[in-house]
Hints:
Chain A is of the alpha/beta class. Chain A has a single domain, classed as Rossmann fold, CATH 3.40.50.970. Chain A is about 45% helix and about 10% strand. Chain A has twelve helices and nine strands. In chain A, helix 6 links the parallel strand 4 and strand 5. In chain A, helix 1 crosses helix 2. The longest helix of chain A is centred in the N-terminal third of the chain and has 26 residues, at about 15-40. Chain B is elongated and about 100 Å long. In chain B, helix 2 runs parallel beside helix 3 (about 150-160) and helix 6 (about 230-245) crosses helix 7 (about 290-305). The relative contact order of chain B is 0.12. Chain B contains nine helices and 18 strands. In chain C, the strands form three sheets. Chain C has a seven-stranded mixed sheet with strand order 3-2-4-5-7-6-12, sandwiched between helices. In chain C, strands 9-11-10-13-14 form a five-stranded mixed sheet, sandwiched between helices. In chain C, helix 11 crosses helix 12 (about 275-285). Chain C folds into two domains: about 10-190, Rossmann fold (3-Layer(aba) Sandwich), CATH 3.40.50.970; about 205-325, Rossmann fold, CATH 3.40.50.920. By secondary structure, chain C is α/β, with parallel strands linked by helices. Chains in contact: A-B, A-C, B-C. At the A-C interface, helix 5 and helix 6 of A face helix 3, helix 5 and helix 6 of C.
Amino acid sequence: xxVQQASPPFTIERDHALAxxxxxxxxRRFEEKCVELYSATxxxxxxxLYIGEEAVAAGVMPALAADDAIVATYREHGQALARGLPxxxxxxxxxxxxxxxxxxxxxxxxxxxxxxxxxxxxxxVGGGLPLAVGVALADRMRGLNRVTACFFGDxxxxxxxxxxxxxxxxxxxxxxxxxxxxxxxxxxxxxxxxHARTDLAxxxxxxxxxxxxxxxxxxxxxxxxTARAAAEVRAGGGPRFLEFRTYRFRAHSLxxxxxxRDRDEVERWKARDPIALFAGALREQGLLDDEAMARLEDDVxxxxxxxxxxAEAGALEPVEDLTRFVYSEERRP
Amino acid sequence: xxxxxxxxxxxxxxxxKLAQWLVKPGDRVARxxxxxxxxTQKGAIDVEIFEGGVVQQILVPEGSEVPVGTPLALVDxxxxxxxxxxxxxxxxxxxxxxxxxxxxxxxxxAPAAPVPAAPRVRASPAARRLAAELAVDLATVRGTxxxxxxxxxxxxxxxxxxAPAPAPAPVPAAEDRAAAMRAAIAAAMSRSKREIPHYYLGTxxxxxxxxxxxxAENRKRPITERLLPAVLLLKAVALAVREVPETNGFxxxxxxxxxxxxxxxxxxxxxxGGLVAPAIHDADGLSLDALMAAxxxxxxxxxxxxxxxxxxxxxxxxxxxxxxxxxxxxxxxIYPPQVALVGFGAVVERPWAVGGLLGVRPIVSATLSAxxxxxxxxxxxxxxxxxxxxxxxxxxx
Amino acid sequence: MTATLPATVKLTYREAMRAAIREALQRxxxxxxxxxxxxxxxxxxxxxxxxxxxxxPERVRDTPLSEDTFVGAGIGAALAGMRPIVEIMTVNxxxxxxDQIMNNAATLLHMSGGxxxxxxxxxxxxxxxxxxxxxxxHSLEGWFAHxxxxxxxxxxxxxxxxxxxxxxxxxxxxxxxxENGRLYTLEGELPAEPPPVDIAHAAVRRPGDDLTLITxxxxxxxxxxxxxxxxxxxxxxxxxxxxxLRPLDxxxxxxxxxxxxxxxxxxxxxxxxxxxxxxxxRIMEGAFYDLDAPVARVCSAxxxxxxxxxxxxxxxxxxxxxxxxxxxxxxxxHG
Lengths: 333, 397, 335
């Protein structure tokens, strides 16, 4: 059974729809758990929550191939989970355990997974864009038809490196999918206070990249746009730029008192909660009922409880190993 | 009953101020409800509760600042949230160290014989090592480099030119009944040399004015009340200590504990080869006559073994005067836990430049052995300079 | 009669580096050269002249003036299976790429718990002496040598210019190669089949017994000239070329100082917090009781490099100042 979406016209299988909902829910509940664990000092340092933006990661990942590459930011729990990094490994990483996806060495901002071609987790705003350009360059030079998806925010669009990277990717026609998650704030600085021209997609287009702005709260719109753009990149069309207009419901990081924005604005965006929107649409089409929703929630709760237990039971790397991983321990051919 | 605790709201948060309660006892709360407002350095933050139930009791009133993890309220009726953080341990105050270490040695030992340690010569580490190997006395080697330091070449030249240094005088055979004292002295002196980074400064002091003045003073006194030159030296040291307090006190538990009173230890040789160095209390405040009397008294009692324990444990700095033995210069070993030792040699008539002319003066060699953890060279130098200066105005001692 | 290849080849340091890059491009298809003006211009210092024509624009890539991004792209390409040689025209412009070098190249291996290594080579021209004034005359090798995760090479001879690049490319971790601009015209002879060199050890360029001169890169010639002057005065100086600034070869330096008892470090960088301070500290730690004199340092004057010739020369270490520093360590008793 399929559901019609009003705009853009798109048909979708029930199983896939429920998978998208499940993914968003999974990310949402994971992030909420992080709040609890942070308050209890189980997780330390900086944690940047994805709550409100789930539709972007959940919509992008199904549109990418298994051997595509991903470069992300420090707000990357959603991307990591949606890409398939095991929740146990991500949670253990937050706990600083050696079973974490980065051996506990990275923490929340530095999730890495070589098998998933997940190149982090980068804490310097804009720092990942050149890496994405380089990964795409390598794939191209090696004759591999792969896309490199690069996530970054509206803040990164002010950094010089954003302009350098879009320019170079366009100049060399590299297979990079630039994915801008415009949540209207670079930490505490609103978009219009940072950019003389706030239409980010239009500015990206000036570098010769076909660019589009998408409603980032609509998971189907995200998925459709990403699939289209990725196909064009894969067909040798050069880089593409997608601006996802989205919003984070919580502070920039745990914690900030959000002095820079109106409670009213937050509430307005919360009315467009991507999970509620999608679940509502599915219910209207009769593809989702309370029982199915409860099953999803139970699944997610169980997975999270399992991940927390795994992390709690995890081991700490011995202090004697402190200076490992500064240089490679084996010669890699 | 579940405890709602002060949450961690940031990487560097240690305490938070409970600015406002949004619930009261009897209110029903659900997971995710905002129940309080907490003030942090970044501003006011709404705090949510992670378990549902009925608020039973508010434990911390509005306006209180408490560490992360402190229970703020009791809530009944739900599974407790993820195990709460332990209450942050109160910062431990550094304990005041007991001054007992100063009181521990039962018998304050003294060096049995002048320790043949050289005063600190500016010599490179390599030269120093070679000098030891070749038995060359560094103090006798001239440094020919521009910076004046003694170098390897200088040591080699000295070794070639001079006969090997005489073997140090053998230590007098210990008598049986002093063997225990010697063992204690050995242990203490070994510890001193092992633990205390000694530095040595020496100076020669012109005692003409002091001795002339003393002669005049003594003419005014009956023989029984005449002052010894040693008293001038002791008083000068006691006063000089006030100017350089880093010489007066104890090194205990990794730190220097300066002493306000100046309890001057005086090294006294005992019959049959022992030494003690009891304190003359508050020597800086004693008149010369009082100091003389105290010195006479403590020497008598030391020689018959009737010292008070406070005299044995209290010296804050020690003076050793081996001038009577005819020794020119004394290079002493500090008695731990003290941080300085002043040595005086014999007063000897020497040629001396005075006002551009060559004369003969009574000169005494004064040395300071000091703990480099407590004082630095130029402060030690000030100390010796102060002693010199004080001895030039004996009437003020 | 078959023609025999010459046993040795006469060439300059520049040509030796070009030959090294050429060999790398031929031997390993993962290698490519990327940087400003490396292709059509032939390289700012003419090192890559002719390589574009020989290897094509895929392997020899001209980049826009975007140090931050093309260095980061080099890192990304290395992450994804290539062995790039990124050329930053000079160390002066590397400051624009410091974020990528420090926060990515040096740290990705560690942050990822060992999953991602960065087999990248960055080449940079460095140093002063050509009246290029304050913004074009830096010697920052010591700064980069401060960073764990990087390896720092300084070829000061033709052999090293020819030989260091290949092992650097085969190394699994990021390697920075600094070429002092004054060395490009250095001329000499190399075997036609140059033997491989290591990228781990310092080298004794001139043996001696009375003192050790320790240096690297552009000031090797200065130290050797100073040694000649000292020899005429009966002072026999040993000259060590550090070659590798991170990790430093302590063993070679300490063995020398243990024997000569005196050390002078010659460094074109500034003395405050520079590489000379690090070497001095290590000598103090490892050879203190062998020292007959404090360790001396001859470094560039603490001033932004001035333009006029006489001031620039006064700011740089010179054979005379090095010899004077060495002489001060020796006393009149020296026979």
